[in-house]
Design brief:
Helices cover 37% and strands 16% of the residues. The protein has helices at 10-16, 18-25, 38-48, 81-92, 108-114, 128-140, 172-183, 222-240; strands at residues 28-32, 52-56, 97-101, 120-123, 145-148, 160-164, 191-195, 204-206, 215-217. The strands form two sheets. A seven-stranded mixed sheet has the order 3-2-1-4-5-7-6, with helices on both faces. Helix 6 links the parallel strand 4 (120-123) and strand 5. The relative contact order is 0.17.
């Protein structure tokens, strides 16, 4: 390992080599959504040596997040997810350039956000309209994007895979997203992380539409993490190559 490389990256350097590690160091990745999936994706990118991260989420941590979300502890309830992750990621990599944005991204604000020079986008949004909007506008700019489908209602991590959106199936969110994007002229051309496992019965309850969510889905501790790790792996492998 080169003398100027930090010791904490020595195992990554051993696996990838100096040239590919340098590609990650020079990359800027946008992660939108810092819930169960997005926070794990962002942390895996940070630990892999990505040089710059922009992380976006308006949510604060709630007690119901503790069963599955990386920044959620009893001591962090009430704090902004982006703020907690900002401090955590700098503790992992003090030289990381990190840009936390504490707001919901939709419509024209998506255009403003994507005007930055990103090498990759991770979509971990869990509501349909801003999700489709981010994907369409990233693709229009030629920015590679990987999008997480639904991790809720699933139990088997071995059923998770990374593929083109056109090949996703047995996922209600993927089905709705394909329909929405098809009306926008997009049927393929970006990666998704999805599970072909049927949703567990009785795992969804309808809410009163508080905020942007009209339902709550039962979720186990490890499934959002698996989805997030798969998202990060797609980014890292593409950028390193």
């Amino acid at each position: 390992m080169a003398a100027n490389k930090p010791l904490w990256l020595s195992r990554t350097d051993l696996l990838l080599g100096e040239e590919r590690l340098e590609r990650l160091k020079n990359a800027h990745v946008l992660v939108v959504g810092l819930g169960g999936v997005g926070a794990y994706a962002a942390e895996m990118l940070c630990r892999a040596g990505i040089g710059e991260l922009t992380i976006v989420d308006a949510d604060i941590i709630e007690e119901t997040n503790i069963n599955r979300q990386q920044p959620a502890l009893h001591s962090t309830v009430g704090f902004a997810k982006a703020d907690i992750l900002h401090a955590r990621f700098l503790d992992i990599n003090p030289k990381l350039k990190i840009n936390p944005i504490i707001e919901f991204i939709c419509d024209d604000r998506t255009d403003e956000l994507l005007n930055n020079n990103y090498d990759y986008v991770v979509d971990a949004i869990d509501t349909l309209s801003p999700k489709a909007n981010l994907i369409a506008k990233a693709m229009a700019r030629g920015i590679p994007i990987v999008s997480s489908m639904g991790a809720g209602g699933k139990l088997d991590p071995t059923r998770v895979s990374v593929t083109d959106i056109s090949k996703s199936h047995h996922c209600p969110l993927a089905h709705m997203l394909r329909k929405r994007l098809s009306r926008m002229g997009i049927k393929e051309g970006f990666k998704v992380v999805f599970s072909d496992e049927e949703n567990q019965p009785n795992s969804i309850i309808i809410t009163n539409g508080e905020g942007n969510k009209k339902s709550n889905v039962g979720t186990i501790s490890y499934m959002p993490a698996v989805f997030g790790i798969c998202c990060a792996s797609a980014v890292i492998r593409d950028l390193a190559q």
